[in-house]
C-alpha cells in the first residue's frame, strides 16, 4: 500500500527475541488459539500463537520498522472515533517486528481480512488481493506468532 513503508535495520537490542517462529513437529502441539481483538472497538478475530512461556525463540537479527503516513494514521483514528494527530510528522511507526529476515514477511491472513473490512472495523481499508492472500496463507501455514 502506498501509505506503508518498511525499514529494515540490524537488531541492536540484546536478547530481543523474534516475534514468530516456524511450526514443526516438535512444537506444533504447543500452538494455542482464541478469538481476540486488539482494541475494544475492533471485532474479535481467530488468531493462533505459541505462548512465550513454553518456547525459547532465537534472538532477532533484524528489526522491521513499519511506518504509515500521517494521513493513513489519522484516517484510521477518525474511523475508530479517535481524534486526529496534530503533531508535525509525515510518517509514524505503527509496528516493530523482531525477525530473522531482512525483508518483508507476509502479513498474516486475518490482518489482510481485517484491513479489507475497512477502517471502521480497525483495518486500513485496502481491498483483499487474492494472490497476496494465498501467498500469506502458504507462509503462515508453516509459521506462527509468539505471544
The counted number of beta strands is 7
Instruction: Write out the strand line-up for the largest beta sheet, numbering strands in chain order.
Output: 2-7-4-3
Rg from C-alpha positions? Answer: 16 Å
Distance between the termini: 27 Å
Mean pLDDT: 93
Shape: globular
Count of discrete alpha- or pi-helical segments spanning 4 or more residues: 3
Helix/strand order, N-terminal first: EEEEEHEHHE
Which strand-content bin applies to the residues?
A: 25-35%
Structural class: alpha+beta
The largest sheet is:
4 strands, mixed
Features:
single chain; 147 residues; alpha+beta; 4-stranded mixed sheet; 3-stranded antiparallel sheet; 3 helices
Amino acid at each position: 500500500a502506498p501509505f506503508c513503508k518498511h525499514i529494515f535495520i540490524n537488531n541492536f537490542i540484546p536478547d530481543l527475541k523474534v516475534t514468530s517462529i516456524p511450526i514443526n513437529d516438535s512444537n506444533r502441539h504447543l500452538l494455542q488459539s482464541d478469538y481476540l481483538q486488539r482494541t475494544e472497538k475492533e471485532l474479535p478475530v481467530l488468531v493462533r500463537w505459541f505462548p512465550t512461556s513454553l518456547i525459547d525463540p532465537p534472538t532477532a537479527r533484524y528489526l522491521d520498522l513499519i511506518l504509515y503516513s500521517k494521513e493513513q494514521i489519522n484516517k484510521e483514528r477518525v474511523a475508530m472515533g479517535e481524534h486526529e494527530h496534530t503533531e508535525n510528522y509525515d510518517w509514524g511507526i505503527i509496528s516493530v517486528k523482531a525477525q530473522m529476515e531482512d525483508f518483508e514477511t507476509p502479513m498474516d491472513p486475518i490482518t489482510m481480512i481485517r484491513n479489507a473490512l475497512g477502517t471502521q472495523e480497525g483495518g486500513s481499508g485496502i481491498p483483499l488481493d487474492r494472490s497476496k492472500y494465498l501467498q500469506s496463507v502458504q507462509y503462515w501455514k508453516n509459521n506462527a506468532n509468539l505471544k
